[in-house]
Amino acid sequence: VPKKRPPSGGQQLEQADFSLQRDDNAIATPPALGGLFFGTLGIPLVFKDLMMRVPRYNAIWAVLHPVNGLLLYTVVLMAVRPTDARRKFNPILAIPISTLFGIYNVMKSGCGKGNAVPGILLHLTDQLEPVVTMILALIIGRRARYPISKWGAALLLVVSTVGYIFIDLQTALNVQLSHQLVLCVSKNIPLALAFLYVEWLLTTRCPEVFPTILWWWICLFQIFTTLLPAYFQFDANDFDTSSYSSFLANGIRCYWLGIPNEECGGVPAVHLAGVITAGCMNLAMPVVARHGGAHVLMYVRAVTLPVVAYLFTSPLLVGDQAESLTWNKVCGLASACASLLLWATSDMRSGAPMGKEKFN
């Protein structure tokens, strides 16, 4: 009997990457876990570095983010080459997601602008996204209930985050910070809505579509849907011109070419590092979700949270903006980590489907 020919690299990627059902007989491969860990660590550090280097061009990060994603998913599609049947998709369905992601990215860039909101606090507010997703899923009827253990994890995470915020505010409360903190917390709402809509599309409305096709269209439309919310981040008082188009052109030159060197020197290298870390996470996350399950993603969150916090205290990485950790802050971070571990354990015991974690 002739031996069965092994699948090609592209077929392996398609089979491993984007099935909606967990493979209980497989485990997440070490390279995928390594890529996810590297991306989860690198993204908050690079993002905050960019926001502090060129704060007046904070919205340019949001504008260029979908451009980078479009290039990445184009390469993936060229490598995987899904069948024609799995390519069929109505692009109009991607517009609401693109709009929500555009709003989220602009809100995040406004939250991280400058050094008003410390990097650890910014990263900690990102961990609230699963809680917001859970609540919105109940409100819109995507879920009927959640186990008590998950509610306990959600409550502990919220209390830990709020407690850490109040500890940090003891020395840094001002009007600007208050405004940015509102953005830090509320940015999770459009993000959670976007992921719930993606989950509905890929599990109910268009279950046969190859997910990277959806992400390709999302990134394409997001290039345009980001421009309107980014306009509200544009402050003409920070520039010599009141032209929004000039702001965009100058910002893109800053990010891509480092011009002018006095302000933007080194920015292209940092931006490239951000593209690499985001690419690692976006490619690794669906593989880990497929072979490990949603709980593995939460375990990675829990493990990387204290590591990211520690890296933000290193002068070697963040220079003069290195933060200090008091015992109160350490306790807050420890409680947040415990809540993420409890959340992951709840997912593992209940055999929860991938949900939005599959498509993050």
What labels would you give this structure?
single chain; disordered N terminus; 360 residues; mainly alpha; 72% helix
Radius of gyration over C-alpha positions, nearest whole angstrom: 20 Å
Question: How does the major sheet shape up?
Answer: none
Structural class: mainly alpha
Shape: globular
Count up the helices: 18
What is the share of helical residues?
A: over 70%
User: What is the tally of beta strands?
Assistant: 0
Order of helices and strands: HHHHHHHHHHHHHHHHHH
* Uncertain stretches: 1-28, 353-360
Give the oligomeric state: single chain
Mean pLDDT score, rounded? 83
Strand content: under 5%
State the distance separating the first and last CA atoms: 43 Å
Kindly describe this structure:
The termini are far apart. The protein has helices spanning 9-17, 30-53, 58-80, 84-87, 95-112, 119-126, 129-140, 148-169, 175-186, 188-205, 211-225, 227-231, 244-257, 261-264, 267-291, 294-311, 315-318, 327-350. The longest helix is centred in the last third of the chain and has 25 residues, at 267-291. The protein is mainly alpha-helical. It contains 18 helices and no strands. Mean pLDDT is 83; it is low at 1-28 and 353-360.
Produce the secondary structure layout:
Layout: H1 9-17, H2 30-53, H3 58-80, H4 84-87, H5 95-112, H6 119-126, H7 129-140, H8 148-169, H9 175-186, H10 188-205, H11 211-225, H12 227-231, H13 244-257, H14 261-264, H15 267-291, H16 294-311, H17 315-318, H18 327-350
Helix pairs in contact: 2-15, 2-16, 3-5, 3-11, 5-9, 5-10, 5-11, 7-10, 8-18, 15-16, 16-18
Summary, kept brief:
With 360 residues, the protein is an all-alpha fold.
